[in-house]
Amino acid sequence: MSDLVRPRKGRFIAGVCAGLARRFGMPVALVRIIAIVAMIFAGLPLWVYLVLWILIPSER
Predict the structure, then answer these.
(1) What torsion, rounded to 10 degrees, do the Cα atoms 21, 26, 29, 32 define?
(2) In whole angstroms, how far apart are CA 26 and each of 43, 45, 47?
(3) What distances in angstroms separate CA 38 from CA 9, 10, 54, 58, one per listed residue?
(4) 34/8 Cα distance (integer angstroms)
(5) Is the pLDDT of residue 2 over 90?
(6) pTM
(7) At residue 55, what are phi and psi to the nearest 5 degrees?
(8) Which of 1, 10, 7 lies closest to 59 in space, CA to CA?
(9) Which ranges does the record mark as transmembrane (predicted)?
(10) What is the pLDDT of residue 22?
């Protein structure tokens, strides 16, 4: 597993899902689908995504 960073390449919006996928060795599409489903059905607020955007450092 690699460090948790938002990659420069492969970002869709902020790179949060791409960074989480890289960190845990999962396909990026799967992580994005899980995030969307969680936002719609599980009530995961958008602000959690925004907080992760702020807290996870960008790749240098």
Answers:
(1) -50
(2) 23, 22, 23
(3) 24, 21, 20, 24
(4) 21
(5) no
(6) 0.84
(7) -80, -35
(8) 7
(9) 29-56
(10) 92
pLDDT of residue 13: 87
- In 10 A of CB 30, how many CB atoms? 11
DSSP labels for 1-60?
-----B-SSS-SSSSHHHHHHHHHT--HHHHHHHHHHHHHHS---HHHHHHHHHHSPBP-
Quick: pLDDT tens for 4-46. 999 988 888 899 999 999 999 999 999 999 999 888 888 777 8
Instruction: Give the pLDDT confidence of 43-58 residue by residue, as tens digits.
Output: 777 888 899 999 999 9
Q: For residue 6, what are the β-bridge partners?
A: 58
